[in-house]
Specification:
By secondary structure, this protein is an alpha/beta fold. The chain has helices spanning 22-37, 63-77, 92-105, 121-129, 143-147, 175-178, 187-199, 227-235, 256-267, 284-289, 296-309, 328-341, 368-393, and strands spanning 2-4, 13-18, 41-42, 51-56, 87-91, 109-113, 132-136, 157-161, 163-164, 183-184, 204-208, 216-218, 224-226, 242-246, 274-276, 314-321, 345-350, 397-405, 411-415, 421-425, 433-441, 445-450. The strands form 6 sheets. Strands 1-7-6-5-4-2-3 form a 7-stranded mixed beta sheet, with helices on both faces. A 5-stranded mixed barrel has the order 18-19-20-22-21. Strands 8-11-14 form a 3-stranded parallel beta sheet, sandwiched between helices.
Amino acid sequence: MSDAAQPIAPPRTFRVTSFGCQMNVYDGERMAELLGSQGLEEAAEGENADLVVLNTCHIRERAAERVYSNIGHLSKRGRRADGSAPLIAVAGCVAQAEGEEIMARAPAVGLVVGPQAYHRLPALLREAVEGRRAVDTEMPPQAKFAALPARRKVAPSAFLTVQEGCDKFCTYCVVPYTRGAEISRPYADLVAEAQRLVEAGAREITLLGQNVNAWSGEDEKGRAVGLAGLIDALSDIAGLARIRYTTSHPADMDTAAGKALIAAHGQNPKLMPFLHLPVQSGSDRVLKAMNRSHDAAGYLALLDRFRAVRPDIALSGDFIVGFPGETEAEFAETLKLVDAVGYAQAFSFKYSPRPGTPAATMAAQVAPAVMDERLQRLQAALGRHQHAFNAASVGKRCHVLVERKGKLPGQWLGKTPWLQSAHFFADAAIGDLVEVDLVEAGPNSLAARPV
């Protein structure tokens, strides 16, 4: 679709603002690289940009309204050097879900592009500059990856999308509608991109997917492999010290590939001792209403299998409180599960109805005040367990991957193998792996002392 508008001066600077999940962070980085390859410069911190890309997430409550609020703010206060309004592009999952509506409601938006079409950003940008407002929310499988430029310089910890989309259709979730069906990127492409990431500065790679453990492919000899096989191949890359993956689905851990992935945690030293495995609720009735394929007992048994091969593994999860029909007794089952697991960290949210999902029309929607109170209790319990996990780490010796400078002179910040934030004073540099003793625990980080 294209609407007539006035031609504008081509943008010379840009800013990509990403919201939501780690996959959006990866997409935002790739869009920035794509715009940079077209000769645009990333706007300096604190300076207005000629082009602003809002890379949106549709999972959270009122996500679309926040997009319109950002658009309004940019239209009034994000002026370009010549005094004109910036060119605004809306990308990501809100763009996919509401592309035409955005164009109708927000005349300041010059283009809308979905998460599977952002490789066409330069072409859409040319249309917008010429005065033709454009929407592209097509979902061609994997076309974007072949069209993206090579990675040049990355942080010590980098993301690599290996799988996109979802076939699970949880009743609360919009991902199958905004990201499409599950697809796996080819093995050879991923190995090649990982090699380029390491050459560009990555010491650690996190493999991303909506259901990352559903990834499958064929290796260089034509053999079928799952995520464990891909991890083994990446482990052979010289200079790559650490591998992580997120987000997993319990259903894909019961396959042969899933069992191999569990075993890899006890066999591959580059695979970090960390697992993010969303459960969403501790109530079997609620899990069934959510169309989750597991129950609480099966989820706990699955975690036991991971702990059997890697006893020190740190566990993370996702929780939704206030799902339609959730009773106080069912919420208490969630708290019971939290205590049984002892999460090192976790994410928790109030249920919010997403248009077009089955849960949005379910009866017995929970009152906002009840959701607020339950979320506070859940987060307090999760916080206690996170602090306890950190406290139990004191006395351990490990390596910290240095990611950035701290606030104090000579201070550095980085991540432990268990994805904890750690800070220490040393003669170091970004990208170093520094051996430390963990000496003091706080609720969100640890103090360390170099060995």
